[in-house]
Design brief:
This protein is an alpha/beta fold. The chain has nine helices and twelve strands. A hairpin with a 4-residue loop joins β1 and β2. The protein is globular and about 45 Å long.
């Protein structure tokens, strides 16, 4: 008698490992790996011990797991964007190709990351799409440009603040400097990686209070609100002019000109939980 389990495995063969390492090397700051999964249609940059940096779907260029699209609630069609910490340019490239802003500036101190973003993530070659290899704090102090959206994504953690690496960005002075670069209706998305309990939880709440002391409206979103012990991404949406996020979200969903399908926004809010 034929083994029925063999028939099942023949009908549904195990998915083959279709991952390919496109790049592995060390920059001045960290080890970087770029990996493509042909089956899942993804391309991802990792740092160090497989810490996710950013990634895209290779069939559409859509950025993976990005909280950026919270900004769509208030500025769905930005004319100008500043990314502090560009990584492989997954989000800025997608926004450039689909929303067609007038200008985009990406700041990343890691020159290798910028080079890799051109080779493996199709970062645009356009005079109005600037990628600058320099320190983000130095850029904020030196330039006077203003933007509709500022995306602050430097990998901020309590450890990096305590070590002196990103200490300035955890100060009110830094946030006041960031606000100077926002348009009147501008939005800041500020990312931080932390647990919600213990010392890291206190650090997270202090960081939120800093934003609240500078911006008239702030909302905190967390990936795992129900798992405070889990190391996770948090995003603070800070508004240069206070607006009610629920009413503006409803307005976005009802707008036939919204840039993404309603289902994408629903999925985003299922993944990122608002924290009161």
């Amino acid at each position: 008698m034929r083994n029925p389990f063999r028939a099942i495995t023949e009908k549904f063969p195990a998915r083959q490992n279709r991952k390919t390492t496109l790049f592995k090397g060390k920059s001045a700051y960290r080890v970087l790996v770029i990996e493509e999964d042909a089956g899942a249609k993804t391309r991802i940059m990792y740092a160090g011990n497989r810490r996710f940096v950013a990634g895209i779907r290779t069939d559409s260029g859509f950025p993976l797991y990005s909280p950026y699209f919270l900004a769509d609630i208030f500025v769905p069609h930005p004319a100008s964007l500043l990314f502090l910490g560009g990584g492989p340019n997954a989000v800025p490239t997608y926004i450039w190709n689909t929303r067609h802003p007038k200008r985009t500036t990406v700041i990343d101190r890691d020159a290798l990351t910028i080079s890799l973003s051109r080779k493996y993530f199709s970062a645009p070659k356009n005079p109005h799409y600037r990628m600058l290899s320099r320190d983000a704090a130095d850029y904020l102090r030196s330039y006077r440009e203003t933007f509709d959206i500022i995306y602050l994504d430097l990998g901020l953690t309590r450890k990096r603040v305590d070590s002196g690496d990103l200490t300035w960005f955890a100060t009110r002075t830094a946030l006041l400097q960031v606000r100077k670069h926002l348009e009147a209706e501008g939005v800041l998305l500020s990312n931080i990686i932390a647990r919600m309990n213990g010392e890291e939880g206190r650090f997270l709440r202090t960081y939120l209070r800093l934003h609240q002391s500078v911006f008239p409206g702030c909302y905190l979103f967390s990936e795992h609100k129900d798992k405070p012990q889990k190391l996770q991404l948090h995003t603070i949406v800070a508004l240069n002019r206070n607006r009610n996020i629920q009413s503006w979200y409803n307005r976005l969903l009802q707008d036939p000109g919204r840039p993404l399908p309603v289902s994408v926004y629903h999925d985003l809010f299922r993944r990122l939980h608002g924290v009161g």
